[in-house]
Amino acid sequence: MAETPLQMTERLHGKLQRRRHQAKKWSDAYEGERPLLFTSPEFSTQTGGLFDDFSDNWCAVVPDATVERLMPIGFRLEDGSIDKDAGKAWKRSESDVEIGLALLEALITGRSYALVWNNADGS
Question: Does pTM surpass 0.85?
Answer without folding.
Answer: no
